[in-house]
């Protein structure tokens, strides 16, 4: 350690993220009747399709209306976007774009009332009137 750096911690410079061209595309505005084989056939015209992922709803087990198509090479991605964006399939105009990574989700923590007790049920109201019998209220009004 040099005399001028006592107590100072240095970290390596962060690496810059390089934008790598993905070989995956997002296909939106799909008809619920569209199958993965139809998508594979359509996008197979542009390049070699390695995978078609058609997510389904957990509750209904029906397609969610979008899909991800993965190609063998990244060059097919730009061709697919250029040629097939806006193409009609099963009565719907497809939206084709490059797939992006999912945004990170915040970590799940305990509910806010676990540490300090239940949350206050204030809701911006005035404080409650004091409770008591009508007789007691009348007596206080009269000054007894």
Provide a compact summary of the structure.
The chain has 144 residues and is α+β, with helices and mostly antiparallel strands. Helix content is 22%, strand content 16%. Residues 14-20 have low confidence and may be disordered.
CATH architecture of the domain at 24-98: 2-Layer Sandwich
Total count of helical runs of at least 4 residues:
4
The CATH superfamily name of the domain at 24-98 is RRM (RNA recognition motif) domain
- Distance between the amino and carboxyl termini: 82 Å
Q: Tell me, what is the CATH class of the domain at 24-98?
A: Alpha Beta
| SS-derived structural category | alpha+beta
Main beta-sheet annotation: 4 strands, antiparallel
Average predicted confidence as pLDDT? 78
Percent of residues in beta strands? Answer: 15-25%
> How many E strands?
6
Order of secondary-structure elements: EHEEHEEEHH
Low-confidence stretches: 14-20
CATH topology (level 3) name of the domain at 24-98 = Alpha-Beta Plaits
Residues in helix, %: 10-25%
Sequence of strands across the biggest β-sheet: 2-3-1-6
